[in-house]
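[job 0412] stage=complex_fold ligand=iron/sulfur cluster status=START
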Amino acid sequence: MQTNFTSAQLADPHVQESEKILRKCVHCGFCTATCPTYVTLGNELDSPRGRIYLIKDMLENGRPADKEIVTHIDRCLSCLACMTTCPSGVNYMHLVDHARAHIEKTYRRPLANRLTRALLAFVLPHRGRFRAALKLAKLGRPFAGAFDKVAVLKPLAAMLRLAPASVPATSALEKPGVHAPKVAVLGRVAILTGCAQPVLEPGINEATVSLLNRLGIEVVVPKGEGCCGALVHHMGREEAALVSARQNVDAWTREIEKGGLDAIVITASGCGTTIKDYGFMLRLDPAYADKAARVSALAKDITEYLATLDLPEPQHKPGLTVAYHSACSMQHGQKITRQPKDLLARAGFIVKEPREGHLCCGSAGTYNIMQPEISAKLRERKVKNIEATGAALVATGNIGCITQIASAANMPVVHTVKLLDWAYGGEKPAGLPDERLLAAE
Ligand code: SF4
Ligand code: SF4
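[job 0412] stage=complex_fold status=DONE, emitting structure tokens
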């Protein structure tokens, strides 16, 4: 694509990067077919190609964002299916991140929208605040139907519906510390404890530590790590995202220098995509560029890391049929497609892949709160395809997808690592069917 930026505009390294990306796009439109918003809404401006034109026009003319561009960029899930499809290697992720930061700086959103976004940015990245908010949400849940009738309160209604009926007890893993194996030590990793996931489902990181320890891997929860910054990053709040990124880079760098790390293990693929991008996000900060690049290189999804280990035979082969839902951040963001399925199959599960596996489930960070209608349509489509597999349960590697799919599916939705932990000698995840009964059917 031809671009017309002035040399003064190109002096801005963010514009320079976006210009490089725009030049790669050849307008072929292949990406439209796999874009969930184009597939759902059928509007070119809600396709990757349409959004690329809108972003180009806004940046080239040095214009502040307007209502039209904000509408179409807000509808983008950042699922990155377009990047998987694009034959020209267009880095839509970095382009849309730049557009979101530009929108945040130049556009004044309506009051209700501003308040909802501010509330999400204030609460979600902080475990204590999020836990308190979930307890409050329990009281507000009966009013969700009433809030749904007022357009500006729809996000609040969506938030209340997504809140779990009960909040799990705080896990000991939230405290910094070292979890040493009882067998010979074969490796040492740090685990990202994160923000929303340990509050909603602490069992995911507990299963991870327990499995890794049994495999001889020491697991460190470093002091000072926290939210990866993805939630605010996707809202265009660049500075806030970089504060989180620097904090985590510092925490992991201390551990790397202290005892060395084989990997930084992440159990939420949404966080993994962002941490793997820290090197890019902090490239212009001379004090952090190298350290951030080192952290990004060490970041591994738990299944990616497990696939590098010499695993023993599973202690228990469950024989259950599992529909594997690949989160967008896993398959498109991190290009991890084979490892989770191979590990599940090796552990004795029968793995089924739902149709339209490339399409987002509609979770996408805070998307299911901010865009509840499109999100609900995508969820319905996803659940229908999952149920058509005839599987007894769903496995996936991202807490957002777990919450989204579980809110509509008639079967348990479990993190992949909890199933692997079970097969390799850990506890059976709660709510799973009895495999002996299923075998007898
Ligand atoms: S990130 Fe997803 S929703 Fe956004 S343009 Fe690309 S395919 Fe469409
Ligand atoms: S597939 Fe790639 S090159 Fe083609 S229109 Fe989409 S982004 Fe541009």
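The first helix runs from residue 7 to 10.
[job 0412] exit 0
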